[in-house]
Amino acid sequence: MGNYFRPLLVGCLTIVLNTVIVRNSLCQKYSKQVELETKLYSLSKVWSECEFNFPYFKFLDQHIIDSIYRKSLADVIVSTDDFSYYLIMRKFLASFRDNHTYYTYPKSIQSQLNRSQFMGVRLEASLIEGKAVITRIGRNNAIDIPIGSEILFIDSIKVSYYLNSHIKPFLSSSSEQRLNEIAVKNIFLGLDGSSFTVTIKKPNNDIATFKLTRADNEDEWLPLLKTSSFVSKLNDNICQIKIGSFNDFSLIDSLSSHMEQLSHSKGIIIDLRGNTGGNSILACKIASFFIHDSIIYGSLVSTRKNLAINRAYGLRYPISDTSNESRMEDILYARNLFLENVGISKNQNEFSLRKISENIEIVILIDALNISAAEEFLIYLKDKKNITFIGEATGGGNGSPMIILLPDGGSASICTQYCAFSDGTDYYRKGIQPEITIYQTYKDFLQGIDTVMEFAIKYLRNNTMK
Hints:
CATH class of the domain at 230-303 and 341-464: Alpha Beta
Strand order of the largest sheet: 12-13-14-17-18-22
Number of helices: 15
Number of strands: 22
Distance between the termini: 39 Å
């Protein structure tokens, strides 16, 4: 993001641990490894760093956050095992409701987590039209759980209640749409060796219940999912560019090698769905293929500023005191609300890279998993006359996280950067909105039809063949 902005880190999906399924085994294994003093220090350290660095306090009720911190302290004191403590840390940071503010479990736990591999079967679930649906299975599954099956119950708990009570409280997300998506993706998560029951409704409406045990299973996925980046040609001289992440700089060479094909296409579909971010420098370089301006503009960035004397003055006045500008500034300092404007990220366009003609219609497919550098990529291309965003609102949260290594063996990520559109309009919590909203339908999914992609192809046909 230019000389004054560090590259945005990967907006990774944070991992939630299934509390019901794995609690007993974790309690036994980690019951006495972390001292109470270390636990209290780690929680207090995290809260201290959040209080002085977290930039989005205006979206929170600080009295509620204070009360959550105090309750978390009390919960840590009475917790009888390390696992309970880790959950308290997860839940506390999740209460900030931010994509880049979360607690990461120690490696000893992370290495045992499993959300898709089971004895005799591989499963992956996604959210489709409000349903938790099996969207991928193993090629050699020994259990009859077909693609398209709807998950009804986990351990006899209705799936909606299970997600709300056992999964979502431990997930960090800036928006409801992203929280709903990642909750379903983590619905099966637990420790290797632990078991649970899942009740499904198959596409033929049969109801079945299975007991699954988490275990290593490297069976090949069906359908094969291309998550990496690639360029391909569709019908009617429409080209597709899949960008799975902004981590691999070889994507620049790949696009350059396909420029002849792209430049002679009638339309281009950039499929950004599922892209959770990466390196914003790469995102800018990829965007530059489609931008003819000399400067590429990104987010308007602000960050917290703390001056002790101003905080002291500000505590003397009620927050409602607006008698003068100086006093209002002090009040903002005292309430963790003062932000220093860093400016709009500006990047020189690289004209050494060949450009796609502005006469070629471009569609970008977006979804709720797009955060961080993926959203910055969209801001670079927003409001270009030949580019249309199609799909659903993005995850609504950009920002450079600060990583705090903790003595409890885990770590905390804390967002430090407030990002908005260049005119100051917030997309935090809302997401970047598509010009045309369309979702994958369950009916189409059962028929192997990508609803959003098919709509994009028809849209380009209608707009390029007049």
